[in-house]
Design brief:
Strand content: under 5%
Number of helices: 3
CATH class: Alpha Beta
Bound molecules: zinc ion
Structural class: mainly alpha
Order of helices and strands: HHH
């Protein structure tokens, strides 16, 4: 018989969605639903420091560019 607290834990885990958009998480991109959201989160994290100088919301396309640039640099 399953312990009630274990049941509650697993229930809570399943309920948690993508950290970016809240959609169901894809195993391949945990804890996100897709590569797109994973990249957006990475961009937010990387861009956070210098973004603090402006109060503008980071543009999604900009974040994707930034993440792509990071990937290219890493490949060298
Ligand atoms: Zn998502």
């Amino acid at each position: 018989m399953a312990d009630i607290s274990d049941f509650e834990k697993s229930k809570r885990k399943r309920k948690a969605g993508c950290a970016i958009c809240g959609k169901p998480i894809d195993k391949a991109f945990r804890p996100f639903c897709s590569e797109r959201c994973k990249t957006i989160d990475l961009g937010r994290w990387l861009g956070g420091e210098y973004r603090l100088q402006t109060n503008e919301e980071p543009d999604e396309a900009e974040l994707l560019d930034l993440a792509q640039a990071m990937e290219e640099r890493r490949e060298r």
